[in-house]
TrEMBL record:
Keyword Hydrolase: yes
UniProt-listed PANTHER family: 4-HYDROXYBENZOYL-COA THIOESTERASE FAMILY MEMBER, ACYL-COA THIOESTER HYDROLASE YBGC
UniProt GO MF annotations: fatty acyl-CoA hydrolase activity
Protein name (database record): Tol-pal system-associated acyl-CoA thioesterase
Record keyword Hydrolase present: yes
InterPro entries named in the record: 4-hydroxybenzoyl-CoA_TE, HotDog_dom_sf, Tol-Pal_acyl-CoA_thioesterase, YbgC/YbaW
Keyword annotations: Hydrolase
Source superkingdom: Bacteria
Family membership noted in the UniProt record: Belongs to the 4-hydroxybenzoyl-CoA thioesterase family.
Length: 136
């Protein structure tokens, strides 16, 4: 079920860096979150509308990130999101932060997101409309 990679441009701002002007490691998770959100939006799956329509939300269940090279203040990056696998209640997305220009990989990881009922945070099945959009 692996899909095509989605890429979202990101500029590194002062607030993203540590005292040395290097991107603080936890901010790569924020970059990845933005890319996943925009990837879903590009598939017609806006998360706020999904919650209204289905009563469910995605939550991060597991992360694994490797940091290969630092990004610096004012760098231009592409944060990617690509479906690795999808099950009944969760999916795993492969993600990268790429230096621009050139495409050198700075950080890469896998993020597993689960579908839960928003009111109770109990695991639930991913609605068919979402799985259909992922397969297009």
């Amino acid at each position: 079920m692996a899909g095509r990679a989605f890429a979202f441009p990101i500029r590194v701002y002062w607030e993203d860096t540590d005292a040395g002007g290097i991107v603080f490691y936890a901010n790569y998770l924020k970059f990845f979150e933005r890319a996943r959100t925009e990837w879903l939006r590009s598939l017609g799956l806006e998360q706020s509308k999904l919650r209204e329509a289905t009563g469910g939300i995605f939550v991060v269940a597991e992360t694994a990130v490797r940091y290969l090279r630092p990004a610096m203040l004012d760098d231009e990056l592409l944060a990617t999101a690509q479906l690795q696998s999808a099950g009944r209640a969760s999916m795993t997305i492969e993600q990268q932060a790429l230096q621009q220009p050139g495409g050198q990989v700075l950080a890469e990881g896998t993020i597993r997101i689960g579908w839960v009922e928003a009111a109770t945070l109990r695991p639930a099945r991913i609605p068919p409309m979402i799985l259909e959009a992922l397969n297009r």
